[in-house]
Automatic annotation (TrEMBL):
Gene: murE
Keywords for the protein's UniProt record, in alphabetical order: ATP-binding, Cell cycle, Cell division, Cell shape, Cell wall biogenesis/degradation, Cytoplasm, Ligase, Magnesium, Nucleotide-binding, Peptidoglycan synthesis
This protein's name: UDP-N-acetylmuramoyl-L-alanyl-D-glutamate--2,6-diaminopimelate ligase
Species for this entry: Gordonia neofelifaecis NRRL B-59395
InterPro entries: Mur-like_cat_sf, Mur_ligase_C, Mur_ligase_C_dom_sf, Mur_ligase_cen, Mur_ligase_N, MurE/MurF_N, UDP-N-AcMur-Glu-dNH2Pim_ligase
Domain Mur ligase N-terminal catalytic: from-to ranges: 48-120
Residues reported to bind meso-2,6-diaminopimelate: 411, 435-438, 490, 494
Domain annotation Mur ligase central: ranges: 134-340
Pathways involved: Cell wall biogenesis; peptidoglycan biosynthesis
Residues reported in the UniProt entry to bind ATP: 136-142
Location(s) in or outside the cell: Cytoplasm
GO molecular function: ATP binding; magnesium ion binding; UDP-N-acetylmuramoylalanyl-D-glutamate-2,6-diaminopimelate ligase activity
Motif, Meso-diaminopimelate recognition motif: chain positions: 435-438
Binding site for UDP-N-acetyl-alpha-D-muramoyl-L-alanyl-D-glutamate: 47, 178-179, 205, 213
Amino acid sequence: MVEPRAGSTNSGPIRPAHTRPVALSALAAGFGLELHGDDRDVSGATLRAQDAGAGYLFAALPGDRTHGANYAAQARAAGAAGVLTDPAGLALIREDPEAADVTVLVHARPREVLGAVSARIYGDPSSRLTLIGITGTSGKTTTAYLAEAALRAAGRVVGLVGTVEIRVDGTVVPSSLTTPEAPDLQRMFAVMAERGVDTVVMEVSSHALALGRVDGCHFAVGGFTNLSQDHLDYHRTMDEYFAAKARLFEAGSPTRARQAAVCVDDVWGRRAADVAAQGAATPITVSTTGPADWSVVRTVRTDAGSQTVLIAGPDGAETEMTVPLPGAYNVANALLAVAMTVAAGTDVDTAVAGLAHVAVPGRLEKVERGQEFLAVVDYAHKPAAVEAVLATLGAQTRGRLAVVLGAGGDRDTEKRPLMGAAAARGADLVIVTDDNPRSEPPADIRAAVLAGARSVDAARGEIREIGDRRDAIAAAVDWARPGDVVLIAGKGHEKGQEIDGVKHPFDDRQVLGELLSDRAAAPSTALRVLIADPAAGVDEARRAVRDLVALAADTGVGSAHRTGDAAHRTWVIFGEFADVDGRDENARCIDHDGLGRQIVRLAVDKVIAVGDTVRAVRALHQGAVMEGSWGDEAVLAATPAAAVEHLRTVPADAPGAGDLVLVAGGELGDALLAYWRDEAGLAVEVVTR
């Protein structure tokens, strides 16, 4: 994992040590502002009155619920030298006796100039940095971390601005927005430049572009990952959403990057490349699926949690690139990171080498406490992201896949059923829970996600609703067997859960780790196996079934005995039993039919009959089906190898830890025991009868 260099975490705003003061009159002249009051010098800017300091300019913007001008007196008391606001804000300030004489700069739409004004106050810091901006729906954070690693490998002193954190040459500052507000961003750039940072990698959200938070930034390189449905509560349409992202590339935009690097794997990426092509520099294209300036030639190898591909650059030279993250989309993220950093002046071999050990917080982040299944936390909170991460994890396991997810309140409502549908298509167990309900009733949000999940005709498995997020994660952990995958989706790196205006401490990674540790500390449960000798005949098989049922009753295993949510089941896996009494084939078929019926009458949960070319075995299977009308729950397999393959490919028909199984010995028993121990990784206890 790439770690920041030694530094401390500062809970308050980090400020540059040296800033040259700027006169309010100079700001007024430079940005077309009206100056009301005495001219004063300012050396900082903020949108939050509580963060104002001596010599600060307080930006008092109109809001949905209140006007920032109502806090002008608080900012002045903290030392603010002036206020930037609109005409309505000026009127409010002049009506407040505690702020009436403060100097005010007025603009009809102050947010439109705030970025440029903030940059001027802090000395236009991004002009002294190589600034790389990354926009798109998914992959911004991962691409930013990959680019940071590539740049550090090349010896750059790097700043990182993103969803998870802001790094200022080793000092980590928590961040709640993908892109900070303009005054905070320019202040951070000033600190970075002051501390020797030469290159900054930052995520650029559609809100930041639309609201002018990145106005005043000089982007050397702009990257585009992809676009899928998100934030339609704000942008209303996908075209409007795209238009906001395109501000990083389009000619005439104040935030246009000098060089664009665009992943063209989707139609929106191709549109972004077209937009960028209308500017001064030809865009650099990236693709994992087709021709581009940077492309994937072939996959070299795929290991657990990583993948190596052969990539080709603009000059045709080929390089092996190892991505320490699973999923085709992470190959795209890595290739975009390489393209951007090479465009910023790094060597391709150095950039690729820098990727090898990157770990991204909350992005396919493994949580390991010695469990025999994969447990992962991921930030996927959009339909396309949920679909992609489930496909990635599903391709890496032969076991079952569970996902715990919800949807955020006060956000795009249209994506909620789409997320549920994506989960139902990709997982064997979907647990719908609360994400960050914010001000909405949590049950209403869950209902929308559940509606989408239940609308899927080809849903793979079970769908549950558990509102409490910890309880939902616990249910998934309890459900998992060796070889399975549990995905906790939606919150990723976040350390709080916002409910009705209150942010409660909650970290999916921490909670999942605690529950895994609790499971590990519980008494271990092995797959217990009883073996019946097939040479001893059907009577011996009947006695073995009775022994199985008695042991199940003693230990609370099986549908007839378990209580609560325990999932341990009883199984019988039989082939043909020998004729020890010299009976003809018809009589033996009747005996095996009766054996199948007995298994069902004694409430054994699952039966698998092995040997579909043998009449007696078919009779056993038919007896079980007729007695219980089980249908697909009573399985007929052709051979021991076919039975093993069935267990391998149909996880719902595979015994797990804590289950109780009666098998016929000989070739069938040997094949099953070898599979459970060597491939499924189960602890197996052979029970002596």
